[in-house]
Here is the input.
Amino acid sequence: MRASLTLAAALVLLVAQATIVLVGLLAPNVTPQYRAFFIDHTTTEWTREPSHSE
Amino acid sequence: MAPRTFLPLFAAFAVLLRLGFYKIMAVPFGGLATAMCQYDCFWYARLATDGYGSDSLFANYNDIPNYAFFPLYPLLLRAATMLSGMSPYFSGVLLSSALFMGFIVLSAAYLKRTRTLTDPVLWVLFAVLFPFGFVFSATYSESLFAVLIVAALALLQQRRVLAASMVTALLFATRPTGIIMLPLIVIDRGLHLWRGRHRTDRVALLGETLLPIAIAPLGLSLYMLAQYIGLGDALAFNHVQVLWERTWVGPFAMVAQGLGSGDWARLLSPKGLQSEAYFASWALLGLAAAGVMIWRRRYSEAWLCAACILLPLSTGLHSMPRFVANNPFFLFAVFDLLLMVRNRVAIAAIFGTAGLMHGVVLVFWFISASSTY
Here is the structure.
């Protein structure tokens, strides 16, 4: 029973973390400006966006 | 006094004495907390006070650059600030110094077990006097990283794998280089799986193998999740490095570029030790220390020493003296060489020179508005 729980916990943790990594790599939820500047490096221009608190 | 009590007390005394020395040295530079706080210190202090998601002071990028700084040290700094009731700058010095004491004591036990260290006092003096080691008392994550990585390796070597993986999870939440501990855990668990291949309780064997591997990266995974929720980019910690002009070049190309620059004259710049060639030389020194570890068949330490240098080196040379000189395994390698010196007068001369250099570099740190590192 304990061995099964240990294995189940390990598998849940691994799958959850793999999901975070995959979603992070494949589906960033960012503005076009953020993508061009920080991820694709297709621009070096940056204009201030409204902050989360504004 | 029992040796178990003596060493922590002596380490505490030595670190406090060093802080007292810093306090005197810092008088012309605005006091200890002000003089010690340079560069990343301000980021950590702002994170400890306002958290992620608050505007930073980095041009017009809102809070985006905050995500370059991993959360465990700012969290501890926030707790230390609340407990002490003092400014985050002063609390940071106290927090880092306490962690540095922990590192010294833990390392003394580790060195005693792995090297038959006969005189731990020598190690304490070495760690306290080593030039550049003042960063261990600054509001930086160096001391936290050092204590965690030595703890993780020691636990792994003592076959306490689950505890090692939990400490590694904290390491992952401290700096991006926390990832370098993962291969050691994976190799250890792979060997465990191989040795147990004839066992009949396959489920137990698989659980013992996979659980530590699943726990170790939790610190980074949770931070990635927080970044995705806060910013929409789980890899923001990596992407924002472009603001510090850190993009992938490769470690060896970076060393060649640094040495090729031949800008040694910039060492005499009024802003401090700004030479690219100087930074590249530090990287080579660190890699040479990893070579010493390989020569002495300390493969895990060699890996941790080299990887701590190669990862940041692949994207830039800046801060290389800090990355090398505050790398615990670099310190162990240099200490190994020091232990080969049998003449007590020579050791005293080495320690005297180290202390002198420590003071000189500390003054560079205090006067630097944008350089030294």
In short: Chain B is about 70% helix and 0% strand. Confidence is low (pLDDT under 50) at residues 369-373 of chain B.
